[in-house]
Design goal:
By secondary structure, the protein is an alpha/beta fold. It has helices spanning about 10-20, 25-30, 35-50, 65-90, 105, 110-120, 135-140, 195-205, 220-230, 250-255, 275-290; strands at about 55, 60-65, 95-100, 125-130, 145-150, 160-165, 170, 185-190, 210-215, 235, 245-250, 260-265, 310-315. It folds into three domains: about 10-85, Arc Repressor Mutant, subunit A (Orthogonal Bundle); about 95-165 and about 260-315, D-Maltodextrin-Binding Protein, domain 2, CATH 3.40.190; about 170-260, Periplasmic binding protein-like II (D-Maltodextrin-Binding Protein, domain 2, 3-Layer(aba) Sandwich).
């Protein structure tokens, strides 16, 4: 029987970090090593598993089939390791964290993040607000929230750009524009002010397309319901998109091509408490992992990747 090989935890973390940040150079900066040291770590990992993990594609690198398998396993190994360490240290953390985030993240992603934090820090009480972007920024700058995910950086406090999400036209499956070119495009949008509404109308104006607001709502659920009913199209990200709706291809639907929107992690204080800092770290890592899943990003090229209110204890 062949001897078991113990994979180096630090090497696995560098490997996962490189994939999530989009390059080994950025991973080197994150883990505090030189690029040559990170390259040596990758070679060591390939020697341990006996397979090539990355291959060159143009000017970038992509994961091989073995690399794909290892990436998924490495994430689970690191998650278990981090949960174990956090659980042993969790008794040191207590108090309260007030978290705010857009409605997009509330239903599909937030429960898993809170569950991870709660298992590690059962003595911490988390208060969660799901609000619109302007309200989130206001609550952070006025000290009503300790942390928030937002679509813009705000004015005061501390902001960190942690992700970039592609903007997308969303509507019924198979939706097509009807009427002549002069026909106004029916839009579904949040009430102004809204960063998505502004991006939507700006893109249409630049292409010279007429539009009208066919449905306005203060809630994301309202937008999805209107889109499902066929009242028009909306502009959002595909994060948390209901299965009943689809991302519309710009060329096929006659809509303008879109860019992306950043996601910021806002903190009320530049030097947060250990409890706030711990939740911020979990949010940052969980979002990076979510966006790096094969369903959300293909191909994975290292060169290119860079108001409700609830309150629970221990959740």
């Amino acid at each position: 029987m062949l001897p078991r090989i113990n994979l180096d935890m630090d090497v696995l973390r560098t490997f996962v970090t490189a994939f999530e940040l989009g390059s080994f150079a950025k991973a080197a900066a994150r883990v505090g090593r030189s690029p040559s040291a990170v390259s040596s770590q990758l070679r060591k990992l390939e020697e341990q598993v006996g397979r090539a993990l990355v291959e060159r594609s143009g000017r970038g690198l992509v994961l091989t089939e073995a690399g794909e398998v290892l990436l998924g396993c490495a994430r689970r190994i690191l998650e278990l390791n981090d949960q174990t360490v956090d659980s042993l240290r969790g008794s040191e953390l207590e108090g309260e964290v007030r978290l705010g985030l857009p409605q997009d993240f509330a239903e599909t992603w937030l429960p898993r993040v809170l569950s991870t934090f709660a298992r590690a820090h059962p003595a911490v009480r988390i208060e969660v607000r799901t609000e619109r972007n302007a309200q989130l920024i206001h609550h952070v700058t006025t000290g009503k929230l300790d942390l928030a995910l937002a679509w813009s950086s705000g004015v005061r406090g501390c902001s960190e750009r942690i992700a970039e999400l592609p903007l997308a036209w969303i509507g019924q499956r198979g939706w097509q524009r009807t009427g002549g070119r002069g026909q106004s495009l029916p839009l579904i949008a949040f009430e102004a002010p809204c960063v998505f509404r502004k991006a939507c109308t700006t893109a249409l104006d630049r292409k010279g397309l007429a539009w009208r607001i066919a449905f306005a709502s203060p809630s994301l659920a309202g937008l999805w319901a209107a889109a499902e009913a066929g009242l028009g199209v909306t502009l959002r990200t595909a994060f948390g998109l209901p299965r009943t709706l689809a991302v519309l291809e710009p060329k096929a639907s006659g809509l303008p091509a879109l860019g992306s929107i950043p996601v910021y992690l806002l903190r009320a204080e530049r030097e947060p408490s250990k409890t706030v800092a711990q939740l911020a770290g979990i949010l940052r890592e969980a979002l990076a992992q979510e966006l790096a899943t094969p369903q959300r990003a293909r191909p994975r090229r290292f060169r290119t990747r860079e108001a409700g209110r609830t309150s629970t204890r221990g959740a």
